[in-house]
Amino acid sequence: MSTTEARTTAAAAVTASGLTKVYGRSDAAVHALRGVDVSFDAGAFTAIMGPSGSGKSTLMHCLAGLDTVSSGSVRIGGTEITGLDDKRLTMLRRERIGFVFQSFNLLPTLTAEQNILLPLQIAGRQPDRTLLDRVVETVGLRDRLGHRPAELSGGQQQRVAVARALAARPQVIFADEPTGNLDSRSGAEVLSFLRTSVRELGQTIVMVTHDPVAASYADRVVFLRDGLLVRELAAPTPQTVLDTLVSLEGAPC
Amino acid sequence: MLRTTLAGLRAHRLRLMLTAVAITLGVGFIAGTFVLTDTIQAGISRSFGAAADSIDVVVLPPPGDKPVVLPDRTLAKVREVDGVASADGLIRGTAALVGRDGKTVGDHPTRGMSIDSRVSITKGAAPRGPGEAVLDENTARLRGFAVGQAITVLDQMDAPHRFRLTGLFDVGVDQELAYFGAVGFDAATARAMTGVKGYAEIDVKAAPGVAADRLRAAVASATGAGPEVLTGKALADRLIAANGASAEFIALGLLLFGVVAMLVAALVIYNTFAILVAQRTREMALLRCVGATRRQVFGSVLLESALVGVVCSALGLAAGLGMGGAALAVLEGMDVPLPTGTVALAPRTIAVGLAVGVLVTVGAAVLPARTATRVPPVAALRTQPEAAVDGPGAGTVRRVAAGLLLAAGAAITAVAVTVLGPGEVALFTVMGGGMVTFLGVLVIGPVLVRPLSAVAGWLPARMSGVPGRLAVDNSRRNPRRSATTTIALTIGVTLMTMMAVLTGSIRANYNHKLEEQFPVDFMLSTQREGSHIPSGVGDGLRGRPELASLVRVRQAETAVTLGGREARRTVGAYEGPLEVSASSGSARGLAPGSVLAAEGLGVRPGGTLTLTPDKGGEPGEPVTLRVAATFDANATPLPPLVVPPTEFARYFDVAGDAQIMVDVAPGADPDRARKLLEEAARPYPTVRVAASTDIRGQFDEALDTQLMVVTGLLGLAILISLLGIANTLSLSVHERTRESALLRALGLTRPQLRLMLSVEALVLGLIGALVGVALGMVFGWAAIQTMFADPIYAPPVGQVLTFVALSGLAGVLAAVLPARRAARAQITAALSET
Ligand SMILES: Nc1ncnc2c1ncn2[C@@H]1O[C@H](COP(=O)(O)OP(=O)(O)OP(=O)(O)O)[C@@H](O)[C@H]1O
Ligand SMILES: [Mg+2]
């Protein structure tokens, strides 16, 4: 924990402290987060791991302002977001956050290109054409831009979603199991693409995943268990991630 | 399977709610119609039955076209028949009541009648002797007369007589008396006032112990051939049947609107079940996986619809009882002379209501149920839960079928307009063509949605940015669904537009005619056909500087032989500056020995006809006249046969004018001219002054009322179609939960999400309205062509545009609740939903 505290510098893109989240009331209450302190560096690729039900998605939703927290604070680039009203939160997401979900990322009525441009248009911003070209080039979707999601494979759809998140140049991109529905080859394409965008574009990415191989693409992995941050790992490889997971299974927290 | 169905119903009850309301409203309207007319019918039977109780036998004049009366000797003969306790003759004619303003009341003279023991005096006493009279309650109230006051009534020579009002009476269910109003006298006075020399009816009371049937036979043999002799009960039955027919006619008219409403409801139901089946594809497939047969899946959807149908029809019956009662209360409040009573649901009403509700619901669900059977079991394994976005929905079959229907509709309409002459046949043919065309539109609908949404959404998409563009895309993503939703609205809008177009065009045509027929500023006429404006009126107006022209028309009825056939016709003459535009021949050729004849009498210029002069009731020696010209009677305010005024005076001894037409001098004040004319007419109670604007105003009012009533009745169909829009939207919102959450995550605000759904509804509403307005304008035009010979087509553009705007607005209103629900949803909850 103290290491996390030490990392809270000007370079942190997202910081959470004392974050708790309780679903339901009294006897039916579920403590999804029990006091999480974590921060994510700007320009870094961080993975969140943990067993099913450990609170990964909940943490991500709270960090991204999609859900309200029970207590604690979340700061995105210096802005305290707990306590913001829906309108301000919406503006925050619109201006500063990008999303990639596990599935159903795209609007079926829009073409790939229209989907990519959608957040910019919602925000009323002009797309940065050179950036857009580069993004499209990197995702390798140039000849697919006019297609609708139904005409794209699952991997292609996820790459469009990633391109959409990148095109708006958000402060941070949150990805919840972006490769969960993909085979290993498509998954690898999307992951290396995410890593490239961090290396080359300086993008900040926070990714939830179950897969040690996926986590190994990140610069750092944090481990959750029963709503608490229990371990973290720098410069992970599939093997070290797997070992950590195995040791977590055994050890009581 | 029943248990699964019930569980499904419980789960979807919110989604079925709007559909349920649609069925309930439709069934309620139909049941309400029955409740209303049944109650009226029961009231009629009760009133006539009660009236029949007091008479045993009735003698009526022989049936025929000409109104004849029973002579005194018939009454005398009846009175002598054995077993007759008493017999009263009923005298009926006209006796014009003069109002407080010194003019005869109403557009037609009040009826004059004898008062006998059968008439129920509700206040005061029956009239006795030559100085007393009674009025019907309604006329007394309307004209402000109270018992004890003096009233003035004109006799047949328009001479005024004063009476003391001794009481008021109830006209009961007599439509004629209720409509015209009535003055009652004792028998001798009634005879003197109406000038009728006989009886319209003789009412006989049997002596104690004499059966009505036997007495009827005895009276019949006494009166001999000719008069009709009936028992009181037989007469009551006949009157009940005649009045019941009119109640049935009302029922038929109202049911027509009920059918339209049910048709719209059927579309809404169809759409709901189609969407539900699409959304439950996985559930159906799962059922198939666990061993349900196609039949069982089909049955479960139908069963669901049948249950909905039964429950909603029952609710509809209750609603109908309320609507019928409310309608009766309104009618009573408006003093409509209808017998009423307590409202009740007849077994027939219950049967029809349930049958219609259930059959329509189940019928509409058949196609969706069949779709459900086509769901393969493997669909359960597919991951994408989203209901499939259907394709353009336009197979070749669809296009060909629609093309054929549209072509047939156009051809039928074209035949009606061009080949068939104006008339009812052509009008009904146009309606038939309209229905076929509508079917074509129904079939081609899904193909039209895409281009129409581009048109209807052009402005909204530009005005509301990203949400607007997404909305327009959404409106066309399920063309079939959108088409069915909008076509339900189209039905109502088409009929409304057609009514508005017809009303506007009829108004224009009528005004045009009025200008031809009534080419003057003022017209003086009398209340009663056959009575005259005393010559003094016209003489007094001559030479007044305020008046530019004065045309005096005289007329008389006499025997005219035309093409070998003799008939009574009106012959007239005019003095003054009137241009008669001849359709053939020349009106200038009108000289002694010649005549102008209306078109359609079957004579041509150069032909002849024979006219019998009539002076003082003595037929003179027939004269033969040459036809100088023919004219269009509809465009000329003259009787069908016109002779020179000098000749008219030789043939007839008519003292006054039938009409005086007056034009105001240029620059003169029309109000002053009117005062002048009213002053001249004041001494004569039957002479009335009308301005062309008055007549136009009355007609306009009648047309507007009619339009309002029809619009009100069509309102139900429109309301149901709006429920349909709300329903489609809320079902779509439901299946797009994840999509909405995604948009919110990407930065769409709550108001923007609401805006998006509102614009989608707006576009749907506008599509429905655009198609409806187009159809309504075209078929309104075609209908007008069949109604007039030289029709003027005057669509009320403002009104029609209002319909379009209102439809859009109503669509937006329909979206309020679904949009609220979509916007309120928690993003994270929606995202984790599968
Ligand atoms: N809306 C909710 N209401 C009640 N409990 C919830 C809700 N959402 C999540 N939970 C509970 O909170 C805990 C954490 O859930 P969360 O979805 O964050 O887990 P996760 O780590 O993302 O799991 P997975 O790997 O399966 O996605 C779980 O116990 C879950 O049951
Ligand atoms: Mg999760």
From TrEMBL, chain B:
Bilayer-spanning residue ranges: 16-36, 249-276, 297-330, 350-367, 400-420, 426-449, 486-506, 707-734, 755-784, 796-817
**Chief location of this protein within or outside the cell:** membrane
For this UniProt record, give its keywords in alphabetical order, as a comma-separated list: Cell membrane, Membrane, Transmembrane, Transmembrane helix
- Carries keyword Cell membrane? yes
Superkingdom of the organism of origin: Bacteria
Membrane topology recorded in Swiss-Prot or TrEMBL = Multi-pass membrane protein
* Entry GO CC: plasma membrane
Mention one GO molecular function.
transmembrane transporter activity
Task: Cite the ABC3 transporter permease C-terminal domain residue spans from the record.
Answer: 256-377, 713-826
Pfam families with a match to the protein in the record: FtsX, MacB_PCD
Localization:
Cell membrane
Task: Check the record and name the InterPro entries matching this protein.
Answer: ABC3_permease_C (IPR003838), MacB_PCD (IPR025857), Macrolide_Exporter_MacB (IPR050250)
MacB-like periplasmic core domain mapped to chain residues: 17-220
Q: What family is reported?
A: Belongs to the ABC-4 integral membrane protein family.
Q: What name goes with this protein?
A: Lysophospholipase
Q: Which organism is it from?
A: Spongiactinospora gelatinilytica
